[in-house]
Amino acid sequence: MLGKLIKHEWKSTYRMGCLMLFITLLVTFMGWLSFQSPMWRQLREDSYNTSFGPLDFISIIVLLMYVFMLAGISYAILIYLGVHFYRTMYTDQGYLAHTLPVGKHQLLVSKILVNGLWLLIIYVAVFLSGLAVLGSLIGIFLSEGYAWVNFWHDFLEFVSDFAFYFDINDKIYLITMIFNFVLSPFVTVGILFGSITLGQMFARARVLMAILCYLGVGILNNLISSVVHSIVTFSSIRLNTAMNIGINSSQIVQLIAAVALYFASYYILTKKLNME
């Protein structure tokens, strides 16, 4: 039954997900287009005597639009997933979901898996977009005869030297970063859905209370992460350990919060659900 729930959830969200991917593609084209004005190539040749014309002004405006729109895509998909979860769980559409012969665990897991996957897909698309646009800028400033192969060789050599100097295992560090990147969308969705469910415990203004719960959980997570980071910073822990703990502490705190909110959501759905 879990497979059917996942399939149904995917069908109800894929249109918006595909639309977000298409918008990301258009925004990426905007970012690439912003670096096609003559100003950028003139900066490479002579940064002191670079002329600035109307086309260059438009280029900067387009670049700023790209940055804001790329950030907006990440927030837009998160807002959509939250609204979709609320509508399909706690409005008139929710009556059908709660009358299905499935357990609350299956219902929650299907929504977290599908919506977390969509958030991950959008995050990857946004990351690749930024990488592509940044690559187009770097390509402009690469000197003649200095190929991309040389650039990546020098970059990786710098990273390797940095890791060696500070005694950091770059392979483990990279694996940890990838793992956190993949896990983060599912944790974010779990916290979002849990906060929305907590908002249903109030008699009035449930949407507002759900938003306040989400903001409150975020503030509490940041506070706890800051305390952990401060303890690490002012202790005698070695720099490589401090960097790993400092980066991972936030993810660990958020993971604990997501798990706690998941079980809170399960309890509310089974014992305290009020659709009125």
Largest sheet: none
Number of β-strand runs = 0
Q: Strand pairing plus helix content: what structural class?
A: mainly alpha
- Computed over alpha carbons, the radius of gyration is 23 Å
Poorly predicted spans: none
Order of helices and strands: HHHHHHHHH
Give the overall silhouette: globular
Percent of residues in helical segments?
over 70%
**Number of distinct helices:** 9
Overall average pLDDT = 80
- Oligomeric state: single chain
Report on this structure.
This protein has 276 residues and is mainly alpha-helical. Helix content is 85%, strand content 0%. The protein has nine helices and no strands. The model has no long low-confidence stretch (mean pLDDT 80).
List keywords for this structure.
mainly alpha, 9 helices, 85% helix, single chain, globular
